[in-house]
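wait is this the right file?? whatever heres the structure
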């Protein structure tokens, strides 16, 4: 039975089909609200349930009025009213499901591979820098990966895949892939994109393969000859984790508007750069971020700590903190289990 979802303190409402999640129903009706992982882990799509009851996919405990829900996992059980932080009428870019061919794979470090995919000849799929794809897996599973190539090159897809022990894609499928193999992907997803005002200087924070969407965003500025001041802080445990060091260093050398600071938590004895956590490196360089925007991608713990530090201690406006938390498959599977 179709349920009606109403937005508190507004005239917005939309139908939600049986077993359809609220986030999906909102998008189908032409509305956009905050989201990121779509797997119930990053909590970007949290909202207050003000009236009614929802089921939590795939088998979580029901939630009732007065509780907080994640719209990417919540299925209405009858009419409901929710109060998300924001919702607006905005059509999503046309999302397609398409078969792509593996072109090549580059092993950049012992735990990061760069996967190059090609769309069918003559096909292009528009996307915004910072968005991601969903790779279809056996049994109805899927895995999300950010697009690392710029929007200009929309007939290919470049993915940065971190090896996760036991990962369904990175530890199983990726090992078997060979040039010429075919994958089914859906794209584009995500709201982690540039703000419209390119005059505002940007601080970028990445951990590990969180660099992938930032690479796309920076390359878009280069392609469009936009001289937006950007300072990239890229953190890792060791030097090998900064797996595109030569590329980023070349940007810093030739682009007057681009600065780069690599940050290592456990560097070797010859390391002379920044040490510690990437979010602390930002506070060490900047006393006042009131006139900046921040784009953070990678480890969810880094993102939450960076948000708190920069908003509370460096005067960053909360609405100018943009983030995309990377959710590894093990985290998503754990989150889907019922509470003990």
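ok assuming it is, sequence goes like this
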């Amino acid at each position: 039975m179709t349920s009606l979802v109403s937005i508190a303190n507004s005239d917005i409402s939309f139908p939600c089909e049986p077993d359809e999640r609220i986030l999906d129903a909102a998008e189908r009706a032409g509305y956009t609200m905050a989201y990121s992982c779509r797997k119930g882990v990053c909590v970007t799509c949290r909202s207050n349930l003000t009236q009614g009851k929802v089921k939590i996919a795939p088998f979580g405990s029901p939630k009732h009025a007065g509780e907080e829900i994640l719209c990417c996992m919540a299925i209405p059980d009858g009419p409901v009213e929710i109060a998300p932080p924001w919702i607006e009428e905005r059509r999503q870019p046309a999302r397609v499901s398409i078969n792509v061919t593996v072109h090549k794979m580059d092993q950049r470090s012992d735990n990061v591979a760069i996967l190059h995919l090609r769309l069918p000849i003559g096909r292009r799929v528009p996307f915004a820098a910072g968005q991601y794809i969903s790779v279809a897996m056996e049994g109805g599973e899927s895995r999300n990966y950010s697009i690392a190539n710029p929007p200009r090159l929309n007939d290919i897809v470049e993915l940065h895949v971190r090896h996760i022990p036991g990962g369904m894609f990175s530890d199983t499928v990726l090992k078997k892939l060979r040039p010429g193999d075919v994958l089914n992907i859906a794209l584009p997803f995500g709201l982690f994109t540039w703000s419209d005002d390119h005059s505002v200087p940007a601080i970028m924070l990445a951990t590990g393969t969180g660099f992938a969407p930032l690479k796309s965003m920076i390359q878009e500025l280069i392609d469009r000859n936009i001289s937006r001041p950007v300072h990239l802080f890229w953190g890792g445990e060791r030097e090998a984790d900064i797996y595109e060091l030569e590329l980023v260093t070349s940007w810093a050398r030739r682009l007057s508007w681009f600065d780069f600071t690599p940050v290592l938590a456990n560097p070797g004895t010859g390391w002379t750069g920044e040490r510690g956590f990437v979010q602390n490196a930002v506070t060490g360089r900047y006393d006042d971020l009131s006139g900046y925007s921040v784009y953070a991608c990678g480890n969810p713990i880094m993102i939450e700590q960076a948000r708190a530090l920069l908003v509370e201690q460096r005067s960053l406006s909360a609405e100018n903190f943009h983030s995309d938390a990377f959710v590894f498959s093990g985290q998503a599977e754990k989150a889907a289990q019922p509470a003990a």
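The chain is about 20% helix and 35% strand. so i think its the right one actually
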